[in-house]
Every structure is written in C-alpha cells, then in structure tokens.
Amino acid sequence: MAQLACTLKAMAIFFVVAMYFATVTAQDLEMEPAPAPTMDKGAAYSLGMSASYQIEQKEGKMAEKSYEEEHPNKAVGWAARDQSGVLSPFKFSRRSTGEKDVRFKVLFCGICHTDLHMAKNDWGMSTYPLVPGHEIVGEVTEVGSKVEKIKVGDKVGVGCMVGSCRSCDSCNNHLENYCPKMILTYASKYHDGTTTYGGYSDIMVVDEHFLVHIPDNLPLDAAAPLLCAGITVYSPLRFFNLDKPGMHVGVVGLGGLGHVAVKFAKAMGVKVTVISTSPKKKQEALEHLGADSFLVSRDQDEMQAAMGTMDGVIDTVSAVHPILPLISLLKTQGKLVLVGRKIVGGSSIGGMKETQEMIDFASKNNITADIEVIPMDYVSTAMERLVKTDVRYRFVIDIGNTMKI
After folding, report:
1. Which CATH number is correct for 38-52+66-158+186-228+368-402, 3.40.109.10, 3.90.180.10, 3.10.450.50, 3.40.50.12580?
2. Chain segment 185-243, per-residue pLDDT in tens
3. Handedness of CA 207, 172, 343, 307 (dihedral sign)
4. Burial class (CB within 10 angstroms; exposed 0-12, middle 13-18, buried 19+) of 148
5. 51 or 171: which carries more pLDDT confidence?
6. What is the DSSP annotation of 91-129?
7. Are 283 and 303 in contact (CB under 8 A)?
8. CATH of domain 229-345
9. Does the bond joining 393 to the residue before it have cis omega, within 30 degrees of 0?
10. What percent of the chain has pLDDT over 70?
11. Where are the domains positioned within the chain?
12. Which DSSP string corresponds to 263-296?
C-alpha cells in the first residue's frame, strides 16, 4: 500500500509539474487551445495542496492558523480568491530566515501564462487564496548564518521551484526540476507543511540553493522572465546539442518563449528559422529579433521547400497542433524537442546549476526578454490582455515601486 501511495503521489506530482510549465499559449499558432486536463479537487487536497495548513494541538485536535499567523514575517501580495481569477490585495506571512535561507525584497515579477491558468483553476488543482508568480527578482535584505554564496545587497532571482529532496539521482545531477519531491514556487507545500506563495508579493524567503545571482549588467525587469521562459528554451538547446555554430534550428511560435529562444540560439551562433502560422510576425522575427528566415507553417510550398534542412526544431507552442509537418523539416537524425532516426524529445525548465549558467550566458550576450512593465494594480487587466494575447512578449510587475495594500 505504501508503494502504491508513493507511486500515485509521484504521478500526481508529475502532472502538476507538466501542467505548471505549459507556459505558451495559442497565440503562437493562432489556434484555439485544447481543453486543459483536470485533476480531481479531492486528489489535490490529498496531496497536501490546501491553501492553509493544520497544526496539531496537544489534545490531538486540529486548529487552523490564519494566513498572517503562519509565520513571523508579515507579507503583502495579490492573490486570487476563487476561480474568477481576479487578483486582489492579500495579507499573509513568510517564515523566519533559516540558517540556509535568504530573504529578499521583491522588485519585479514576470507574468507567465501559467499564472493565469492557476488563478482560474483551469487545471483543476488550484486552491485559494493563491499568490502567483515564478519569475521573481529582488534585492537581498537578510541571509542565514550558513549561507555561503549570497550576501545582503545582492540581486537574486527565483524561478519555478523553491525546494526539492536534494538527495535523489535527479538532485545529485543538478536536475532538481525532475525531482519527484520538487516544491513549486507557489500552490505547493513546503517542508513544514505550509503553502508556498509566489512573487506577486513584497518579500520572499528562499533556500540559498534555489536562488540565482543576477549580474549587474542585466536590467532586473527584463531579466525576470528569463527565470521561466529563458531557462525553458535554453535548456533544450544545450541538452540536445542544438547550440553549435552553423547549425540550423527552427523555433515554432513567437511568443514569450519563442522570442527568447531566437535570442539565445542566435547568440550561440546558430542559424534560426522562425515557424509561425501568422505572416504578420515575419518582420518582427527578422528585423527585431534577428532570425535568419521565416516560415509560414500553413504555406505548403514554403514548408516543402524547407524539408530536410534543419538540425533541430524547438516547439514552444502548447496549443494542439500537428507535428508531422515539423518533423519533415528535420535532417536525418534531426531532433524535434517536444521515424528515420529522428528524435522526439521533451524538456522542462532546468536545474539550478543550468539556470545560473543561463543567466550568466544572458549577461555575457546582453540577452533579456522583451517586456511591458506594469504597476501592481494593473495585474487583473494584464491577465485579461494575456487571454487576448495582447502582449509583446511578457508583462513584468514593478513590485518594488507599486505594491500597495
């Protein structure tokens, strides 16, 4: 029974992780997204994903603490209270700074499409109140007694995870993102049983291991989306060896992920072709982002002319769409990151070592996301615009200057 329970829990965690990182929308192919898979709410609660936690009392009864009383550090943020997804001010608390913890003031937080899905419970596993945000940057204000690599005043970033078991094969190989006990930045359970809250808030307290340094030359607002969108496309370029100068890589979709993929690939010396259903994105891809060529995926003549020319294709589109036309673009042994010796692969963000490498690479090559900075009280409007794909290419909230309760 214990083995079965562990298996079911691992499957459920895999479901959470898989859906958590589906960060690109139908905007990239201009298609209607398929209905999202759902998880039974009872199953979600059985995994410990409730929005508040229970503390065992001496008499054996359970008493619920308020969100402001869970921890000693008062915090404010913006939270969704129900499936409407509307965000409003929320008072809660953060834990004390432990010996390996870093406390920092949040300055900017990107808006990922995952935030919208979770706020609206599109995947059937959200619990409320829910504070979104996993593209977080800020300035360190306090460090624990055993913190070694970070000091007060440093600029740091937090991405999609804030914890893992630190002992499994994945963790030992710097692949914390595949740990079955990975703790997500929000809507997850921390080691002490309390709920994790994301970066739409004024402060964060995070284990040093799950922070990355943000170099001084990267603007903090435009660096924030790199913590999710950036590592999500950087990792497969490296892992599948699609980072060699002179190689030819296709990037499917020109949204929050796709535009950063073009920048990283070009900085690696790769020839880049953007593939999209929308001809109107051609000028943007070629003139602004520096892509070498552009394919309209609905144009059969263009697609046929490009058959067998690419070493790899990075597909950043989460909407349901055919992949056979993309496979036809590959050379023998070409790789589609999603027969004739063609590899279909998958990728999910990246481990902490690789995330720091990605940030350092971005710093060296002056790569940031294209963003629109917004005040905190504009976030609900931004969510509405996100549904309409009315953003180029990432919203970033100015937490440091506009967080007010």
Report:
1. 3.90.180.10
2. 999 999 889 999 999 999 999 999 999 999 999 999 999 999 999 999 999 999 999 99
3. positive
4. exposed
5. 171
6. EEEE----TTEEEEEEEEEEE-HHHHHHHTTTTS---SS
7. no
8. 3.40.50.720
9. yes
10. 82
11. 38-52+66-158+186-228+368-402, 229-345
12. HHHHHTT-EEEEEES-GGGHHIIIIIS--SEEEE
How far is the C-alpha of 230 from the C-alpha of 392, rounded, in Å? Answer: 15
How many Å apart are CA 302 and CA 304, to the nearest integer?
Answer: 6
Extract the tokens encoding 197: 């809250």
Which tokens belong to 83? 């499936």
Q: With 80 as the cut, is the pLDDT of residue 44 above it?
A: no
Task: List beta partners, residue 130.
Answer: 80
Is the Cβ–Cβ distance between 311 and 271 less than 8 Å?
no
Q: What is the pLDDT at residue 343?
A: 61
Number of neighbouring beta carbons within 10 Å of residue 324: 6
**DSSP state letter for 194:** P
State how far the Cα of 51 lies from the Cα of 185, in Å rounded to an integer: 14
